């Protein structure tokens, strides 16, 4: 009877675990649990005997004393990813956990339903726990070797203007053009205040073979002079730029009037190493300009490596931070802490913190959430198994009661 009682008690626990798995079938990033049973100590009635010359050995005779709960394991299998389209929803594809902190305690979760708080920090909006990572310094540099902290997304933050110091031109100067023919392109030169000054760079075919003269002009009244140096470029017979030799750039100096209020002059390096002179249609354009006007943060994006990039109103992008991810030697040793969170234990090991996509850590998906890994078909099968195990154990108790009753009736 006591063995059967142990079966009843532990099958109730089995049903509790299965019921919890089914209840969390739609819980974000829920990890299902699995029950394992063990037999209890057995009563030895006869021990084993060794074989002799005339007789073989005998096996031990033992009577089991029931069963006990072996353990309730957390299955850390990947859940399916569900698209939400929300910018601050994240899911981990692979191993690892997001790191959250409420001040004193640190939690680990695969639930990436985050949001940006009024303070600008990335948080879990259901409990206010702050997402941990590394924030960029004013220059945009991120030190991932420093301790993790809250990630700040400073919406509305202004970014200072940057004067143009580097411009890259690309294109082709048509070798078939007659002497005196021109090909022109216009590029905006930004001053120290972020104001754009259009400068037109004109390439004119010289009478000398494979030679082009460079002239500059501007329609901006604040531009008092633009000087290119050198003012001539030369190609070889294959149409490849020969003078100035790469990587020597053109030096473009834009002088501004004092009324503009900006620093003057603005010196820019124009890289022209990718310019060619082939017998095909000619066109020149500026493919890169490191200058920009002042702007403010309007949005951000997160890459698969957890890198957070700010998108500013002036069209520039700048690093804002880096999400951190924790990896455990034994993720099954983590302890549930509620609200889709786990805590480290002595058997989980200490968290190995790094960036997503490195050291065995998974990548981060944006606009998606991880679903529960509960397998309903398996859980409903477990319901039947738990029910049958409970019924069988209760039948053993009723049968044992009938046997005892018969023993009592023998006295009558």
Could you characterize the architecture of this molecule?
- This protein has helices at residues 2-23, 376-410; strands spanning 33-39, 42-46, 61-64, 67-74, 81-83, 89-93, 97-101, 106-109, 112-113, 115-116, 122-123, 130-135, 149-150, 158-159, 166-172, 182-190, 196-205, 211-217, 223-229, 232-235, 241-243, 250-256, 266-276, 283-289, 295-302, 307-312, 317-323, 325-327, 335-338, 341-343, 352-354, 363-366, 368-370.
- By secondary structure, the chain is mainly beta.
- The protein has 3 domains: 2-40 and 63-76 and 373-410, no CATH class; 81-159 and 297-370, no CATH class; 167-293, Tick-borne Encephalitis virus Glycoprotein, domain 1, CATH 2.60.98.
- Strands 7, 8, 12, 13, 14, 25, 26, 27, 28, 29, 30 and 31 form a 12-stranded antiparallel sheet that branches.
- Helix 1 (2-23) packs antiparallel against helix 2.
- The radius of gyration is 37 Å and the shape is elongated.
> Rg from C-alpha positions?
37 Å
As residue ranges, the low-confidence spans are none
| Beta-strand share of residues | 35-45%
Structural class: mainly beta
DSSP summary: helix tally: 2
Mean pLDDT figure: 90
């Amino acid at each position: 009877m006591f063995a059967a009682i142990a079966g009843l008690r532990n099958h109730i626990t089995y049903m509790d675990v299965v019921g919890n798995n089914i209840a969390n079938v739609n819980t974000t990033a829920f990890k299902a649990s699995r029950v394992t049973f063990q037999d209890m100590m057995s009563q030895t009635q006869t021990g084993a005997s060794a074989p002799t010359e005339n007789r073989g050995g005998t096996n031990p005779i033992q009577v089991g004393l029931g069963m006990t709960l072996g353990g309730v394991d957390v299955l850390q299998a990947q859940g399916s990813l569900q698209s939400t389209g929300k910018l601050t929803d994240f899911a981990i594809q692979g191993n690892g956990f997001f790191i959250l902190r409420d001040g004193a305690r640190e939690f680990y979760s695969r639930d990436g339903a985050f949001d940006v708080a009024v303070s600008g920090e990335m948080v879990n909006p259901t409990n206010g726990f702050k997402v941990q990572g590394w924030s960029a310094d004013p220059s945009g540099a991120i030190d991932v070797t420093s301790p993790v902290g809250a990630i700040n997304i400073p919406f509305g933050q202004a970014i200072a203007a940057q004067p143009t110091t580097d411009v890259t031109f690309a294109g082709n100067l048509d070798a078939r053009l007659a002497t005196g023919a021109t090909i022109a392109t216009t590029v905006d030169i930004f001053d120290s205040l972020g104001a754009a000054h259009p400068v037109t760079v004109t390439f004119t075919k010289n009478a000398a073979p494979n030679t082009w003269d460079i002239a500059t002009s501007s329609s901006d009244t604040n531009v008092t002079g633009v000087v290119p140096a050198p003012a001539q470029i030369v190609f070889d017979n294959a149409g490849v730029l020969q003078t100035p030799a790469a990587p020597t750039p053109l030096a473009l100096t834009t002088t501004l009037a004092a009324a503009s209020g900006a620093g003057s002059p603005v010196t820019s390096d124009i890289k022209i190493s990718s310019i060619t002179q082939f017998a095909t249609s000619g066109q020149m354009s500026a493919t890169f300009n490191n200058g920009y006007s002042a702007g403010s943060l309007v949005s951000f994006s997160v890459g698969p490596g957890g890198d957070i990039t700010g998108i500013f109103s002036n069209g520039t992008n700048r690093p804002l931070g880096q999400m951190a991810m924790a990896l455990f030697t034994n993720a099954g040793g983590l302890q549930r802490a509620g609200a889709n969170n786990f805590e480290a234990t002595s058997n989980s090991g200490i968290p190995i913190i790094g960036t997503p996509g490195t050291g065995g850590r998974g990548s981060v998906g944006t606009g998606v959430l991880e679903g529960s890994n509960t397998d309903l078909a398996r859980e409903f099968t477990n319901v039947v198994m738990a029910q049958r195990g409970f019924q069988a154990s209760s039948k053993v108790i009723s049968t044992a009661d009938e046997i005892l009753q018969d023993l009592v009736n023998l006295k009558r």
